[in-house]
């Protein structure tokens, strides 16, 4: 059989946020052309699976929640498919759906389909190894075989304001509802003393604290930030957390420490009743849960997850132990990650290098089933990923400043504004989707 007539092998990438997009672009721009080193080598295609056809620029979520005028929806939500139309159809496919199961023995992924394929860039029935059938709940499912699998499903926040919870329309609706509520709200509770909670409280106070008591204007906004720790920003030095609290208090935010949220229930009247760990109960007009994230890995077998649900991948070579050949995890869903965007882009080159090596190994073994390629196989040298342990965290609070550290060095307030708070890097969003670009990097493209 001629190589041109063979069905390509699938490089399946689960997740189309920062990690999945960067891995897909990197493979399609460079890695795929490095392959095919033997006469019998197969062809390859990337199959990108995502429950959303848009990337949510959640870097800017703390400001986007204030008003769609500050960060419009058109800036917060960037279409994914447009970024891949330049790739040949036989090299790329997209599935709008969520992975529900992975069978490592038979090497396939089951996907619950959000919408049927409608464009040439989406996986369709002409790809003979993909099968579609009806699920038990009338939800169509698709079974996709994989030659290599990259798990890049990331994490989700409790609040749909801060991360996607499926199709992007859910987050658009949540933002619209919150914006509408702000017009009449007199109280907001933000639960969580980490970066997201501090930024949300700071941005709301910055842009809405000067509302007057004029009957024609919205009422003054009372903002309460609830921290479960003894101080804000517990991952940063105490002095930085104290500086953040001082800035918030200057903006009029009331900060409560040593209080953990037990429940938040919206009542028939429309207000939310929050119950805290000290038997305190407070009602508020609007509520934001910024109490952390959880990994989007419920579809994976427990044996490849740690106790918190993160994928147990080798922290150096990024391969998933016990999952078989050519299975990797990258980004926030991986146990080795610090859940920062810098981790994503620092680990992608290692992932692509080692994936290329593993595909070369496969090609060499297929051409030499009885041996004879030992020297070439031995020459394949993997690259080890070394996690940068220095703390980087930028937390804009006021209109022109904030607190933070860059690689372990404390930054002055104006640099936090310059690097993030000025526009929340929204000018980099299109490049992040269209090129796999690191929004905090100085260069224009990741893959030359």
Automatic annotation (TrEMBL):
Recorded GO CC terms: cytoplasm
SUPFAM superfamilies: FAD/NAD(P)-binding domain
Occurrences of domain FAD/NAD(P)-binding (ranges): 10-338
Keywords: FAD, Flavoprotein, Membrane, Oxidoreductase, Transmembrane, Transmembrane helix
InterPro entries in the cross-refs: FAD/NAD-bd_sf, FAD/NAD-binding_dom
Family of the protein in this entry: Belongs to the FAD-dependent oxidoreductase family.
Protein name (database record): FAD/NAD(P)-binding domain-containing protein
